[in-house]
Design brief:
By secondary structure, the protein is an alpha+beta fold. The protein is built from 15 helices and 27 strands. Strand 11 and strand 12 form a beta hairpin. The two termini are 33 Å apart. Bound molecules: flavin-adenine dinucleotide (FAD). Flavin-adenine dinucleotide (FAD) binds next to helix 1, strand 11, helix 8 and helix 15.
Length: 536
């Protein structure tokens, strides 16, 4: 067992962990160790925008978790891809750059998270950002995270956006600007048509620093806690078990599933559950792994009469070769974009203050999308994906076994309330209304799923239970707050334990009403600034 001593140890090199390692090592005064369970991000599909369909099911760089059977979802086990490589999920995600609604952060503040209202977090979004459109009141330039427009316009996305307007949803050129409502093209975390993960943005420029050690293939199995203080981390490598000692702070950045799992393995969690698992209890903390929040979605697919979709690319070798050549030579064509070109934010009920629905517009349609891959329909098609952004149901992340290398037991609580069902039904009906508008109608051959036989609320809910999935935005399983229903305080320090913070999507008190990568990066920017402040 080799031991080494660091000022900061970060476990998990994901969206948050790479930011933490880069920022904490920036002034050269602190020795920082970054531990990542997965390998380096050398798989070429990681870096090609359309490659995210390939990394969706690659066990070398993806944890490929599954939930336990979900009672409200016809007993199904839902597939949960998660990045397991440098960059974490920012290396396998859809690259859509969305911050959520300003009011989401004000809600965090109302829940006791002082310093996390929108005006307080905006500087950290801007600090992270290199916005290709240039700076303004809401956007920054010169930050590590490149945010770019789509490489071009797309025929079906244009038609779908026009259809949204015809259905009463106005155009919005910037979902991250003054207001979120409306429809438009998404910006992406890409640079020169390449994925811009946090490994690319933050870690690569920092890697050569003498005071930063990045260890891949290093699975953190336990935070060592002595006399109420984190003093090191145990981790498993191909060469065996190792320990790194820490004289400053341990930062847990394993994501919404990995972080509560590691805390529980370390003896911080619901005492009864830890005892059942045979883990010695250090502190009874019921909130560790509770409050799991997420977005929930289903998919509506249409067959179209023009071979302009990504389904057609996938089915034809000549088209694939042409697309590969176009990308290699000019960084353009279908491979240069993420396939989720556009979307809309709107409300399931006009009386709501903030949008609770997101409609993603995909230039492809799928027969299946899960643990066995992304299987497109054998005909041209597109998808409108209705996402419920504010489910009331909360789930749990618990240990399945005391084996630190075993996957965690994840239970969501989708469709918990009458509102949860009402919102997704409203979203489905809205998608159908959009598809029925003149701008889209002329392309459509037929609705493939749910299909026109599925009309009543009961039938649609059956469809939702049989097909609904996680939108891959889990948060809040180590929620920030001030009471016993939270794990970390507003400076992201674990309650009652010295030298231990959690910094990643798991600390969001409530999931934001939009994609979660940019908010997670913002959280890490703010956390690292707070830590540097605390370190004097
Ligand atoms: C398929 C998919 C598509 C998505 N699309 C989008 C999108 O288009 N836009 C968007 O904004 N968001 C998207 N998201 C969500 C977004 O990527 C995540 O919210 C964000 O990356 C979470 O960051 P994180 O730091 O909390 O966790 P992660 O980025 O998941 O990082 C956790 C890291 O910790 C490592 N780790 C875990 N446990 C251990 C351990 N015990 N020891 C060592 N290392 C460990 C993991 O391997 C991983 O590298 C998507 C996610 C997925 C999976």
């Amino acid at each position: 067992m080799a031991e080494d001593t660091y000022d900061y140890i970060v476990t998990g090199a994901g969206s948050a962990g790479c930011v933490m390692a880069a920022r904490l090592s920036e002034n050269g005064r602190h020795r920082v160790l970054l531990l990542e369970a997965g390998p380096p991000d050398t798989n070429p599909w990681i870096h090609i925008p359309l490659g995210f369909a390939r990394t969706y099911v690659n066990p070398k760089i993806n944890w490929m978790f599954e939930t336990v059977p979900q009672p409200q979802m016809a007993g199904r086990q839902l597939y949960l891809p998660r990045g397991k490589t440098l960059g974490g999920s920012s290396s396998i995600n859809g690259m859509v750059y969305i911050r959520g609604n300003h009011g989401d952060y004000d809600e965090w503040r109302q829940r006791g998270c002082v310093g996390w209202d929108f005006d307080s977090v905006l500087p950290f979004f801007k600090k992270a950002e290199n916005q290709t459109r240039g700076p303004d009141e809401f956007h920054g330039t010169g930050g590590p995270l490149h945010v770019s427009d789509q490489p071009s316009k797309f025929e079906l996305a244009e038609a779908a956006l026009e259809a949204c307007v015809q259905a009463g949803i106005p155009r919005n050129p910037d979902f991250n600007g003054a207001q979120q409502d409306g429809c438009g093209y998404y910006q992406t975390t890409t640079s020169n048509r390449r994925r811009w993960s946090t490994a690319k943005a933050y870690l690569n420029p920092a890697k050569s620093r003498q005071n930063l050690t990045v260890q891949t293939g290093a699975h953190a199995t336990k935070v060592i806690i002595e006399n109420g203080r984190a003093t090191g981390v145990e981790f498993q490598t191909a060469e065996g078990r190792k320990v790194a000692k820490c004289r400053g702070e341990v930062v847990v950045s394993g994501g919404a599933f990995g972080s509560p799992q590691l805390l529980q393995l370390s003896g911080l969690g619901p005492a009864e559950h830890l005892q059942d698992m045979g883990v010695p209890v250090i502190a009874d903390m019921p909130a560790v792994g509770a409050n799991l929040h997420d977005h929930f979605n289903t998919n509506l697919n249409w067959r179209v009469n023009k071979a302009i979709t990504l389904n057609d690319l996938e089915r034809s070798w000549p088209r694939k070769i042409a697309a590969a050549a176009q990308y290699a030579l000019f960084r353009s064509g279908p491979m240069a974009s993420n396939g989720v070109h556009a979307g809309a934010f709107t409300k399931s009920d006009p009386r709501l203050e903030r949008p609770d629905l997101q409609i993603n517009i995909f230039e492809w349609s799928t027969l299946r999308r899960g643990k066995d891959g992304v299987i497109p329909h054998p005909f041209p098609g597109f998808t409108l994906m209705p996402v419920h952004l504010r489910p009331e149901g909360r789930g749990t992340v618990r240990l399945k076994s005391p084996d630190p290398l075993a996957p965690p037991a994840v239970l969501f609580d989708y469709l918990r309330t009458e509102y949860d069902s009402r919102a997704i039904l409203a979203a489905i009906r809205l998608c159908r209304e959009i598809a029925a508008q003149p701008a889209l109608k002329s392309y459509i051959v037929n609705e493939v799923t749910p299909g026109f036989g599925v009309m009543s609320d009961e039938d649609l809910m059956q469809f939702v239970r049989e097909t609904g999935v996680s939108n891959q935005h889990p948060t809040s399983s180590c929620a920030m707050g001030t009471g016993t229903n939270s794990v970390v305080d507003p400076r992201l320090r674990v309650h009652g334990i010295g030298g231990l913070r959690v910094v990643d999507a798991s600390v969001m008190p409530v999931v934001v009403g939009g994609n979660t990568n940019a908010p997670t990066i913002m959280i890490a920017e703010k956390a690292s600034a707070m830590m540097m402040e605390d370190a004097g």
